[in-house]
Amino acid sequence: MISTYEHILVEKEETIAIVRLNRPKVHNALSHALIGELTNALNILDKDKSVKVIILTGNERAFAAGADIGEMAQETSVSLMLKDPFSIWDKIRNTKKPIIAAVSGFALGGGLELMMNCDIVVASDNAKFGQPEINLGIIPGAGGTQRLIRLVGKNKAMEMILTGEMINAQEAFRIGLVNKIASVETCLEEAKKMAKVIAKKSPIALQLAKDAILKSFETSLSEGLQHERKNFYMLFATADQKEGMSAFLEKRDPVFEGH
Fold it and tell me: Angle, to 10 degrees, between the axis of helix 203-215 and the axis of helix 239-249?
């Protein structure tokens, strides 16, 4: 353990940090308090030079089954506008280090939106995904209508959001919503294997690669290419670039130090 929270658990395994949503009695419903703790933990881990990759997970029954409806049911338009509860989610998206989601069980509503803020998704074969907000007379509010269409296309996003129906892990893999499927027992271990591969790379290159990829969602192709080019050029000012190319020419494994 590196920190103590009420609604999440945080631990480190060498260069990998594992953040586990921990409200099992309510299927890890995303209360304001939980999201506050999560953003705090991600901020700390993002600044921790010993951490290269972050894994976000839940338990075998649920990654996160959605928002805390008990909290949300009491809100009004005015109270939501004043609190602006979703603005804090920008801090999750702005995490510089790669985040791998290890998803078992339900990833619904806000849970799916949280998963889509991650960079890579390993899902267990029991995972279920959906945006069921329409069944409550509302719509996704933490990015679902925007991110889902970018990941799976307009028609599938329309189907999932307008029907509120769930899809299974195999369908999520087929449409590109998840990267890999594993068993419930091995899901987290598969995420760790991928994290260990990524953790061996240059931390600066990882950060700028993630930055360039995310930029593509918000700009034209020409603007995205200019941003990519700038990040590419910037990396030639790093010791990691020199080490990486020297190691290649010398036929050895590189040792990246993050500067």
Answer: 110
